[in-house]
Specification:
Layout lengths: L3 H11 L2 H11 L4 H7 L4 H15 L4 H10 L27 H12 L5 E5 L6 H11 L8 E5 L9 H8 L10 H9 L4 E6 L8 H10 L3 E7 L8 E5 L14 H5 L2 H13 L10 H10 L4 H8 L7 H14 L9 H15 L3 H10 L6 E2 H8 L9 H10 L4 E4 L5 E4 L2 H13 L3 H21 L6 H10 L1 H13 L3 H4 L7 H7 L2 H15 L5 H18 L2 H18 L6 H13 L3 H15 L4 H17 L3 H18 L2 H17 L3 H17 L3 H17 L3 H18 L2 H17 L3 H15 L14 H7 L3 H13 L5 H17 L2 H11 L4 H9 L8
Parallel strand pairs: 1-4, 1-5, 2-3, 3-4
Antiparallel strand pairs: 6-8, 7-8
Helix pairs in contact: 2-4, 2-5, 3-4, 4-5, 6-7, 8-9, 9-10, 9-36, 12-14, 13-15, 14-16, 15-16, 17-19, 17-20, 18-21, 21-23, 23-26, 25-27, 26-27, 27-28, 28-29, 29-30, 29-31, 30-31, 31-32, 31-33, 32-33, 33-34, 34-35, 35-36, 35-37, 36-37, 37-38, 37-39, 38-39, 39-40, 40-41, 40-42
């Protein structure tokens, strides 16, 4: 019998952080209802966790759990925090063996000549767990982060770039290539990417190669059943666990140290705490591990059955099952056939209701919640067992795993190998279509519900929930598209485009909408109109395709008119108005917006907010600043009172622009800080970058150059995360100017070159934003007259923004005292006819290096 002191480390590793939180609150004498309120959970979720705690502590009552926790000091353990950014999954069980493999992977990734390391091996051999353990050891070697990207839920190679971007919080922006955004974000990072389960997405392997070529300090650790086959790849075949010699000689101490045996014993003890390796069962355990070829998943599945069968009985059943299931597909690796046999054997040992539940759970992609399981798994032929009991049984048998969400709600996943097997069984049972429709109905209804929370105080929670179940929502959408089921699509179409427009994933959103529009063809239904309106909105956001957006908005408006659905018309009217304003017809834009506002105020203020913002922007474009400011400030007060932060950011941006146009730097500075605070609260990286960049510019104008540099550097990371190359370029412009002012022409030119490269395909301004650094670059290189030419070009350009004057005025003032009146006048006049492309080429040329 182990002492409490010896048991404490085991219990600490077994209890999840959330379970320890609940234990602490139990010790503080909070009821289940109070714990649920404190941790933002449902009462049923707390009840679930309490049951897990009782099981792990081997107690039966709350008082016993509190006493046991106090004895082991589980409620007073300090929390550790890692300084390196990371999303590595926290293992729920201890790793057995693999010391040599972890050390080998660790050493390989430290080598300068290894940029891509692929762990190759059959399903169930432990590639994922090995990658996580090795990556955890490397946290101190990658200061910019170690990030885990699960590729298993993805259905197409084209989605790999998006999955990486979402993990890194790099948000999509209209018209930009996701691969180039990733290159930009990673270019200066010392970072490790763990790409897990690549085998079904091998056509995306060149993406990894391109990222590595463009980012000198990036390293990739991939797991796959097959090598990626790209240049520079270092393969590492993951071996099975070490297996015992069938003639082990009866030495239990030696046998227990064999990895496969140690894993079997450890997992057997998890379901049967008094299990031990004895002279009586040692031979059977050794033979089980040999038959399972040291495959971790197969061993875990077998060990989970010791609760019902002793090792001798297990061996007999295992021998029979393996003999029957050795005739798998000949083109599959032998071990994969063996693993399939182990899974089939484990499945066959389930009772009928457990089998039915296991098969139905295979429909979930990327995991599921308790609520989703209840809705989908019980939709037909109700189970004769409680679904929660059935789920717990599958957890105990290692067929399902539990993970923990940030919100505290339990979430469950199934290994892809098991999920594929479950789907086969679902089809064999003839329940495939029924369960898939139930899945689609649940998740499209969920998406529709989350849409109702947009532009409310619950919007950020809604976004987090949308992200958590995005793989399921996407699968549900594609199911509806495949069956041309407008009733299903109609559950989510009214506002789902707002998620893409406000929070990212624009490229994927465009693809999904286009697939749906192709599927429904010439339909004139309400769902068709919603799809057209949503597509018009999202394609405009994605690619600035205002002409396409207007076309689809007008089609939607026509159908809404035919159906008498005036309540839906505010959104397409706003879309048409935005296009009219873009194409230079502000009067028509305002007329349409006022009509939309009238409709929106009678339906939902979510649309009213958006419409009022656009009316204010139109007024500002017509130079009616007083009206624009009054509307924006009214909207700011309303949004602040209602706690709607995402829309508030847009209002603050436009108030800031008004202050800049009126040269009110005090107001502009206050608004930029307010924007920074608001955006930081909800992790809106694009606005964090926008605010930081402009605070840098204001500090520059105030001649606080150190502060300007701090803000410019502060803007770089959120700008890259947002995917807004424009904001990265603006930060680099400021850093270029500051370097030039210090006489560092080489660094200034490097920042200038990088900014120009980013802005090359972004025609936001007639005068490229990046060119604002050019006068400083050539001045630092010792060419004052050419510097003045470029200042003249910028100031005299018809569409130069107000801040452009402020950026170059300090240099203009300095040049007035440095040049003679004649030289100054001549350079100023030459600047009015500068060829922009030639000027850029000259500024970047090697000949512009400073003399020494």
């Amino acid at each position: 019998m182990q002492s409490d002191a010896n048991q404490q480390p085991l219990l600490l590793s077994a209890l999840t952080p959330r379970e320890r939180d609940i234990l602490q609150l139990m010790a503080d004498d909070l009821s289940n209802a109070e714990i649920a309120e404190r941790l933002v959970m449902t009462a049923g979720t707390v009840k679930w966790y309490v049951k897990q705690i009782y099981s792990k502590l081997d107690v039966h009552t709350r008082d016993e759990a509190i006493a046991r926790a106090a004895d082991l000091k589980l409620t007073t353990q300090p929390q550790l925090a890692l300084s390196t950014p990371s999303n590595l999954p926290a293992p729920t069980t201890s790793l057995v063996g693999r010391e040599q493999e972890i050390a080998a992977v660790y050493q390989l990734l430290l080598r300068d000549d290894v940029r891509l390391l692929t762990l190759v091996g059959t399903a169930g051999i432990g590639k994922t767990r090995l990658s996580i353990e090795a990556a955890a050891m490397l946290l101190g070697d990658f200061p910019d982060g170690v990030y885990f990207v699960s590729l298993a839920p993805l259905s197409a190679p084209s989605l790999v770039a998006n999955a990486i971007a979402q993990t890194l919080d790099v948000q999509e922006t209209g018209g930009q290539n996701i691969e180039e955004m990733l290159k930009s974000y990673l270019r200066e990072k010392r970072l490790l990417l763990v790409l897990d389960n690549f085998e079904h997405l091998l056509p995306a392997a060149p993406l990894v190669s391109e990222l590595l070529k463009a980012t000198p300090n990036l390293k990739v650790l991939a797991t796959s059943r097959e090598a990626l086959r790209v240049y520079g790849e270092q393969e590492y075949p993951v071996p099975p666990l070490s297996q015992p010699d069938v003639n082990y000689g009866g030495d239990l101490s030696t046998l227990s140290e064999v990895e496969a045996v140690a894993l079997f014993v450890k997992r057997a003890q998890a379901v049967k705490p008094d299990f031990e390796l004895t002279p009586e069962n040692a031979s059977a355990v050794a033979e089980i591990c040999i038959h399972l070829e040291g495959l971790p998943l197969a061993i875990e599945l077998a060990a989970a059955r010791v609760k019902r069968y002793n090792p001798e009985e297990l061996l007999g059943r295992l021998n029979q099952r393996l003999n029957i299931l050795t005739g798998g597909a000949r083109d599959l690796p032998e071990r994969q056939q063996t693993l399939r046999g182990a899974i089939a054997w484990s499945y066959d040992l389930l009772n009928e209701d457990e089998k039915r539940l296991f098969a139905r759970l295979g429909v979930f992609v990327g995991g599921w919640s308790l609520e989703a399981m209840e809705a989908v798994a019980s939709c037909v032929s109700p189970l004769q067992i409680d679904t929660y009991d059935g789920l717990e049984s599958l957890l105990n048998k290692s067929l399902v795993r539990q993970i923990e969400r940030i919100t505290g709600e339990p979430r469950f996943i199934m290994l892809e190998t098991l999920r594929e097997y479950a789907l086969e069984k679902l089809a064999e049972r003839g329940e495939d279509e029924t369960i898939r429709r139930a899945h689609a109905e649940y998740f499209l209804s969920l998406a529709g519900h989350l849409c109702t929370l947009l532009r409310t105080a619950e919007e950020f929670r809604a976004f987090q929930a949308f992200e958590t179940d995005y793989a399921n929502i996407r699968t549900a959408w594609l199911c509806a598209v495949q069956h041309c089921d407008e009733d299903l699509l109609g559950l989510a179409t009214e506002d789902i485009s707002r998620f893409y427009a406000d929070w990212g994933r624009l490229q994927d959103g465009v693809a999904l909408y286009e697939a749906a529009l192709d599927a429904i063809g010439d339909s004139r239904s309400l769902t068709a109109a919603d799809l057209m309106d949503g597509y018009g909105n999202i394609i405009t956001q994605f690619a600035n395709a205002f002409d396409v957006g207007e076309t689809y908005a007008r089609r939607a408006l026509e159908i809404y008119d035919q159906l008498g659905r005036d309540d839906r018309k505010a959104s397409p009217l706003t879309g048409i108005a935005r296009a009219r304003s873009w194409f230079g017809d502000p009067n028509e834009a305002e007329r349409l917006l006022l009509e939309a506002l009238k409709i929106a105020k009678t339906t939902t203020f979510r649309h009213a907010d958006r419409t009022m913002l656009n009316i204010a922007v139109t007024a500002a474009e017509r130079k009616d600043h007083d009206r624009a400011r009054e509307m924006l400030e009214t909207l700011r007060d309303s949004l602040t009172q209602r706690g709607i932060h995402s829309q508030l950011s847009w209002v603050l941006v436009n108030l800031f622009s008004l202050a800049v146009e009126e040269n009110d730097l005090v107001a502009a500075k206050n608004l930029a800080q307010e924007l920074l605070d608001n955006a930081s609260a909800i992790r809106q990286y694009r606005f964090i970058a926008y605010a930081s960049t402009h605070l840098s510019l204001i500090a520059f104008i105030e001649r606080d150059y150190d502060l300007a540099g701090e803000y410019a550097k502060q803007a770089l990371d959120p700008a890259r995360r947002s995917g807004k190359e424009q904001y990265v370029a603006e930060s680099e412009v400021m850093l270029s100017v500051l370097a030039a002012m210090k006489g560092d022409a080489r660094t200034a030119r490097q920042y200038f070159q990088s900014a120009l490269r980013r802005m090359e395909h972004m025609p936001y301004y007639s005068t490229p934003v990046a060119f604002l650094a050019a006068p400083y670059v050539v001045f630092a290189a010792g060419e004052p007259e050419r510097a003045l030419e470029y200042v003249s070009f910028i100031i005299n350009h018809p569409r130069t923004k107000e801040f452009a004057y402020l950026m170059v005025n300090p240099l203009r003032t300095a040049l007035e005292t440095q040049l003679s009146a004649e030289a100054y006048e001549a350079a100023w006049e030459r600047g009015k006819t500068v060829d922009l492309e030639a000027a850029i080429a000259y500024t970047l040329s090697e000949g512009n290096e400073p003399t020494t």
